[in-house]
Amino acid sequence: MAHIEIFEPGLCCGTGICGVDIDQALVSFSADLDFTRANGGDVARFNLAQEPLAFVENEVARRFLHTVGQEGLPVTLVDGATVLTGRYPTRSELVSWTGLAAADTAADTAADTAADTASDSGAASHLAALQPEGSVQLLAMASATPGAGAEASAEAGCCGTGGCC
């Protein structure tokens, strides 16, 4: 199986999914990454702010950063070869590169879709599963409607301590 490495720009935390102004691309990518790993994919993710040594130790990532700069990130490597730059890979790209069986992932995707439409509580629990490290509170913050509830969520921060991780 292929080994995938994603070198991404500096984010405030390991996933970039914190605070009240969450980038939907990072939410989707985190869900796709979790899906790929759960199905046996070998994927590593490196954040420039959190893991700068990974960029120094990887020749391809280091040269890319020196040549293109942080604005060119993320860069995706498959078995050490650059396959994608400037955006996060999609779920189908991750599945393709890892060589996961299409039938296995199609069944999982169909089950996910069925869970989304089953019921309101089923949909909420399915969406919570998309959050990395089981961070149910992050999803609630991201989907909060303007008003008192949203302000309370914003004050709580992503970890409930009143500030960002």
Write up this protein.
With 165 residues, the protein is α+β, with helices and mostly antiparallel strands. The chain has a single domain, classed as Glutaredoxin (3-Layer(aba) Sandwich). It contains eight helices and four strands; from the N terminus they run βαβααββααααα. It has helices at 24-38, 52-57, 59-67, 91-98, 102-118, 120-129, 136-143, 148-156; strands at residues 3-8, 42-47, 75-78, 81-85. Strand 1, helix 1 (24-38) and strand 2 form a beta-alpha-beta unit. The two termini are 34 Å apart. It holds the Pfam family ArsD. This is Arsenite efflux transporter metallochaperone ArsD.
Helical residue percent band = 40-55%
Output the strand order for the largest sheet.
2-1-3-4
CATH class: Alpha Beta
Biggest beta sheet summary: 4 strands, mixed
Compute the average pLDDT: 72
Shape verdict: globular
Total helical segments = 8
Total beta-strand segments: 4
Count up the domains: 1
* CATH homologous superfamily (4th level) name: Glutaredoxin
Provide tags for this entry.
4-stranded mixed β-sheet, 4 strands, Glutaredoxin, Arsenite efflux transporter metallochaperone ArsD, 165 residues, alpha+beta, Arsenical-R_ArsD
List the helices and strands and how they pair.
Layout lengths: L2 E6 L15 H15 L3 E6 L4 H6 L1 H9 L7 E4 L2 E5 L5 H8 L3 H17 L1 H10 L6 H8 L4 H9 L9
Parallel strand pairs: 1-2
Antiparallel strand pairs: 1-3, 3-4
Helix pairs in contact: 1-4, 5-6
Pfam families: ArsD
Protein name: Arsenite efflux transporter metallochaperone ArsD
